[in-house]
Amino acid sequence: MEVKVKDPSLAGEGRLKIEWAEAHMPVLMELRRRYQDKKPLRGYRISAALHVTKETAVLIRTLKAWGAEVSLVPSNPLSTQDDVAAALADEGIAVRAWRGMNEQEYFEAIREAARSSPDVVVDDGADLHVTLHEEMPSVAKNVIGGNEETTTGVIRLKALEASGRLLYPVIAVNNALTKYLFDNRYGTGQSALDGVLRATNVLLAGKRLVVAGYGWVGRGIAIRARGMGARVIVTEVDPIRALEAVMDGFDVMSMDEAAPLGDIFITATGDKDVIRKEHMLKMKDGAILANAGHFNVEVSVTDLESIAKSKREIRPNTVEYVLPDGRRLYLLAEGRLVNLVAAEGHPSEVMDMSFANQALSVLYHINNRGRLQPKVYDVPLEQDQEVARLKLRTMGINIDELTPEQQEYLRSWK
């Protein structure tokens, strides 16, 4: 794949960022050391479509240390850290990524990664998986297996499987307990608010913050916002999750009811048009709109453009839309992932577990080549537990083990 980054001279800065991430990702570094002499991925090609961040760089370096030939493209046009991309390119990784890609440049990079005839596909959002299936099925048929990092991508791949069109097995890394319980909840919970604060520098204490969706991402945002003094409102379509939010102590209502109350809105649903024209027209002057879902479809930017009489970028990653009556609404990060566009994404410590699962899932595909059907699989429980065990060990935490008698007691129907 043709290597293309914004500025190769940024490689030195990128290497420092990667070193910082490596110092805070001990599980993945332990796994790198465990397998780097054996080179279990020697001779295999991996195409990855991931947010090009310092944490991703640690994963890519690990796969390379295990012997793989790796191509890397972004999974979002605005999430690439250009210095990290430059550092990886300088180390011989086939990178085609820069911040601010237009739609054509982004999808051409995805196609380049697909055309490299990968043995294993590592994706975040499933754009690479879908491109292989729609545009290059002859290439997809030779793929040993793939991984998927995020909820939105898993939804797309399960739909592909349900239609009978999935051409290779995929491991839903997102569904690992050591991924979604920590990455989705604590990682997005912290980094989404970090993005909002970097873009606006507003005070959260006392604000009414509306979280759309109470999945693991939404509940993480809600918990963190409450911890910083915000008065949190949750909107949901699932009655069980809505009831859970109520029992967790949050106000729960429809978006129609929340629209005139909220000071800050953060979407976290994985669906489209969660905040629409009818909601925007009810919002108070100065309301802030942000998205923590994978694609820029949750806040309807089209609707916002249609009702505004003017707009201007008033701060980096903050665009002010003025409505005909003079009210101002502020859209952050173009409606894209606020934590990666306006901030640095998840902290390295939480990506440590997610990317440990990615690396081990690549090995799982290689070790089980030819034995898996074209289906979406969950991460094996043994792998999940090993990642958790390693994380606890790196934190200096010891836990109990069942005695043989206790194990027998739990197995017995008596």
TrEMBL record:
Q: Name one GO cellular component term.
A: cytosol
Instruction: Kindly state what the record says about how the cofactor is bound.
Output: Binds 1 NAD(+) per subunit.
Q: Which transformation does this protein catalyse, written as a reaction?
A: S-adenosyl-L-homocysteine + H2O = L-homocysteine + adenosine
* InterPro entries linked: Adenosylhomocyst_ase-like_sf, Adenosylhomocysteinase-like, Ado_hCys_hydrolase_NAD-bd, NAD(P)-bd_dom_sf, S-Ado-L-homoCys_hydrolase_CS
Residues that bind substrate = 53, 124, 149, 179, 183
Pathway per its UniProt entry is:
Amino-acid biosynthesis; L-homocysteine biosynthesis; L-homocysteine from S-adenosyl-L-homocysteine: step 1/1
A Pfam family the protein falls into = AdoHcyase_NAD
Q: Which PROSITE patterns match?
A: ADOHCYASE_1, ADOHCYASE_2
Per its Swiss-Prot or TrEMBL entry, what cofactor is needed?
NAD(+)
EC number(s) stated in the UniProt entry for this protein: 3.13.2.1
Instruction: Provide this UniProt record's keywords sorted from A to Z.
Output: Cytoplasm, Hydrolase, NAD, One-carbon metabolism
Name all S-adenosyl-L-homocysteine hydrolase NAD binding domain ranges: 184-345
Compartments (UniProt record): Cytoplasm
Top-level lineage group: Archaea
Question: Which family does the similarity line name?
Answer: Belongs to the adenosylhomocysteinase family.
**Free-text function comment from the UniProt entry:** May play a key role in the regulation of the intracellular concentration of adenosylhomocysteine.
Q: Which HAMAP family match?
A: AdoHcyase (MF_00563)
Q: Provide the protein name.
A: Adenosylhomocysteinase
Species for this entry: Acidilobus saccharovorans (strain DSM 16705 / JCM 18335 / VKM B-2471 / 345-15)
